[in-house]
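Residues determine shape. Take a concrete instance:
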Amino acid sequence: MTRAAYDVVAVGNAIVDVLAQVDFPFIERHGLVPASMTLIDEERAVALTDLFPNKVIAPGGSAANTMTGVASFGGRAGYMGKVADDRLGAEFTNAFRADGVRYETPPRPGQPATARCLIAVTPDGQRAMNTFLGASTLLDVNDVDRALIESASVLFLEGYLFDRDEAKAAFVHASEIAKGAGRKVSVTLSDVFCVERHRESFRHLVEHHIDILFANENEIINLYQTADLDSALAEARKVCPYVAVTRSEKGSVIAAGETTHVIKPEPVARVLDTTGAGDQYAAGFLFGFATNRPLPECGRLGSVAAAEVISHMGPRPETNLKVLAGI
C-alpha cells in the first residue's frame, strides 16, 4: 500500500503556553492557585503575560502536542487550529512549523486574541495554570482544509473543541471529508468534564464517525455510564473498530473487535509532570497505525512517548521519539 502524503492531521485548540519559574511570594501577590487550572478573561491574560519573569513561550494545545509527537517519531503531520493575527499567534505558527508540522490555518483578525495558558511553576514543581481560550474556540467549517484531510491516513479530533456548535459542525464536516477519501477518523475525549458536558454528542460522534477512540479509564467509563472498564469497553466495541484506553501506571488497553491487547507501561525513573501523557500516547499509537504497524506495537510506541513526556516538565517530547523507540 502506498503511504499517504501525511500520516496524521489534527483539528484542535491552538493554545500558546507561557511558562515561568516563580517564587511563592509571586504566587500569593498575584492571586494564583498552585496545582489548579483556572479559566481567565483576556484582560487577566494580558496582565499576567506582562508580569511573568523570564517567560518561555511555546505552542501548546492537546492535539497540537500530539502532532509534534508524531513528527518526533519521523511521521508527517498537519494541523488545523485557530490563532489570532497577533504576536503570540505568529509565535505559535513559527514554532509549530519549526517542529515539522504543516500548519496553514489563516489567523483571525481582531479580537479575541490568541489563546494562551499561563503556567507559573513554583520551586516545589507545582504549576498554577491560568487559561484564556480566546481565538482557539472560533474554529469553524471554513477552517477545515479538505485537501490536507484527504491527503492523510488518519484524521485526529480534539474533544476540548466540543464546547461550541460551530466546532462540532467542523468536526463532522472534517470526518465526512476523511471518510469520503477512505481515511480513518480518530478522536480523543480529552477530559472527564468534556464528557460530562457533551456525553450524548460524543456517543453519537463515536458511533457514526469514529474509527479510533482515545480515552483514559475515567473518561470512557463516564462516556458509557458503566461501573467498570470492561463494561465500558464492551459498549465501545459495538460501535468503534479500535479503542485505546490509557490507565496511568497500569499501561493501556487496546480493543479491536473481540481482541484485546494489554500494553505494559514503559519504565520511568521519576515522574515529574503528567501533563501531555495522553497526548503523546496518541502520537505514538497514531504514528504506528498510520505506518501499518501491528496494534501491540502501536501501543508500545504510545507508551514510549508517554513515558518520555512525564519524565520532564512540559507536554512535548524533549528527546527524539524515533531514536528512543528504536525504529
Observations:
- The CA atoms of residues 29 and 319 lie 36 Å apart.
- The chain has one domain: 6-13+62-111+135-325.
- Residues 6-13+62-111+135-325 form a domain with the UDP-N-acetylmuramoyl-L-alanine:D-glutamate ligase fold (CATH 3.40.1190.20).
- The first helix runs from residue 24 to 29.
